[in-house]
Structure prediction request, 548 residues.
Amino acid sequence: MTLAFPKNTHLTVNPGQFVGIYPNDQTALLPRPISVCRWDEKEDMIRLVYRIAGKGTREFSGAGWGDTFNVTGMLGNGYDLSEMAGKSVMIIGGGIGIPPLLELACRLKEKPGTRVTAVLGYRDSNMFLREEFENASYRVYIATEDGSAGTKGNVLDAVREQGIAGNTDIIAACGPMPMLRAIKCFAGEHGIKAFISLEEHMACGVGACLGCVVKTKNVDEHSHVHNARICTEGPVFDAADVDI
Amino acid sequence: MKPSMEINIAGVKFRNPVMTASGTFGSGMEYAEFVDLTKLGAVVTKGVASVPWAGNPVPRVAETYGGMLNAIGLQNPGIDVFCSRDLPFLEGFDTKVIVNVCGHTEEEYLEVVDRLADEKSVSMLEINVSCPNVKQGAIQFGQDPKCLAEITGKIKDRAKQPVIMKLTPNVTDISEMARAAEAGGADAISLINTITGMKIDVERQKFALANKTGGLSGPAIKPVAVRMVYQCAGAVRIPIIGMGGIATAEDALEFMLAGATGVAVGMMSFHDPETAVNVAAGIEDYLVRHNISDVNEIIGAVQV
Prediction:
């Protein structure tokens, strides 16, 4: 889905940030948090790629050009581009965690001396966004659960099979929680810094309701307990800082 | 002529009757960039305890038909951080501040009440004796009339600000609780807190919330809340702040006609942060349309 914003909105999008989109169905009152897949700065447009998970996303998928939605954003922190610039970055995406990483790959491509390797994990040979990642990355590696393309297995199976962890400075990952747990562990073992984007059920999206929290290693500065708000302090965290 | 929107609860004057409901507006800070806080009758803060509380595991929220369930578990940074960070922020705005106080035990409530005694910017205290998501204490105080009257009395003995007791709807007869709060010396009551509910994810065959049960809020609960405000208005003489699913000025007016002096917008701030401000403007339009010069004229004015 592509969202066009009113003239002179002047969006600024950091890769990994998300928007809260409100269904027009007035029985579904909470915003759907969806990360930005691509940002068109000139046209004030963003592209969202999402999975139909319930009645809100089903409504979005039936929308056409000219339909309108209320949107809050840009929300969350996003990936720290300056920390990744000039480095060897491994982008690891699993399933519906793949789309938010495309904006990151494209933006890193513009940074001189940055080398992006993408490892994308799919269920089967329906490899959405693969071509876009190939255009934005130095190399793309594929893992599929059913073995129909690339490495049979998950993203870390592909990383191990290809032996590509060696010269990686930073990992940027988004995907299901078991994948992120494995990446946190893998990054720790190899001494690689990993930034992971987390997902949780949200109500407000702006840090007020405390619905979406993740356990943190240290006492969080805002909450003063071992909980950080995914919508506000995240969704991108240093994997070493969160207890997942 | 512009109608008067000012209301008075226990000697505290509010610019208009529309407040935020505790727990749905953070400490005001989180929504300040979306909402003009000076257009609100009051900011009612998220519950604050004597020490930081970590709250419940996730998932803590789930959407339901026309509403939502939550089991946050009153996560809060504790009164010290509240006084050093959140309160000074709110002091930068010309709006009334009501601090919601939570605790597990009588001592914990009193510790927070004492800490707030000298905070001049706090206009009132709202005592949360009705959270359904905290295992120990809290709601027990709100479900037993004797306990409720007792803790109300003890808080009133120590509090420097007028005290609102926030009631739970999870009782057989809420008017009995309203009378108990009044007997204990409460200056006002607010109701309703959330209604205990449950949601099951049928695809995964799991509870939607880690806590299994949660508090239901949103437009789905409004008729229950209006009925309870009406019942309590007939049972006590102290002012009532009504809440439960208010989305529009018409919703708020229902509560006021049923007997509420003030109203609060809760879950609908998540749907549209400007809901409370729009509700206040809509009440004023209603008064103009009905040629009513003072908002106080509609309190309890429903015709029998």
The two ends of chain B are 30 Å apart (CA to CA). Chain B has a mean pLDDT of 96.
